[in-house]
Amino acid sequence: EDVPSQTFDNKDYFCGKETFPVYESIFTEEGETIRKIAIEIEKPPQIEIHVWTIRKGILHHFYVEKLSKREFEELPYFKLITRTTLSQWKIFSEGEAQISQMCESRVCRTELEDLVKVLYLEKSEKGRC
C-alpha cells in the first residue's frame, strides 16, 4: 500500500529530515560539456550551483557559485531532478572535491554520474528510517 508523503508547512520530509530541491542543467558546445547541479537552500535563502566543465570525458574545470533565488529563476535550462537532504548534499560535495582532484588527468564519466546518484533519496520502506 502507498503511504502518503508527509508535508509540514509545504516542505517535503524524508524520514523526518527536511529535503531541498535539486536542479540540473547540461549544455554541450564544441566538444565541451558544462554540467550544473544546483540546490535551493532556505537559510540563507540562496541557490548553490556546482559547475563542471568536461572536455573529452575529463573534468577540466570545477567551481561553485551562489546566487539569489531571483537570479536563479532568470537562468534558462535548469530542470528539477530530485529533492535531497542536507546530509546527502554534504556527501555529494565531499565526493565532488575528491573527484575533481582524481579526474584532472583521466576520464571520469562514471564517477560523475555515480556522484549525482547520491542526491536521489531511496524511497524508504515502512519503518526503515
UniProtKB/TrEMBL annotation:
One of its GO terms (cellular component) is extracellular space. It comes from the Eukaryota. Residues 10-129 form the Chordin-like protein 1/2 C-terminal domain. It is found in: Secreted. The keyword Zinc does not apply. One of its GO terms (biological process) is negative regulation of BMP signaling pathway. Keywords: Developmental protein, Glycoprotein, Repeat, Secreted, Signal. The keyword Chaperone does not apply. It holds the Pfam family CHRDL_1_2_C. This is CRDL1 protein. It comes from Drymodes brunneopygia. The lineage of its organism: Eukaryota, Metazoa, Chordata, Craniata, Vertebrata. The gene is Chrdl1.
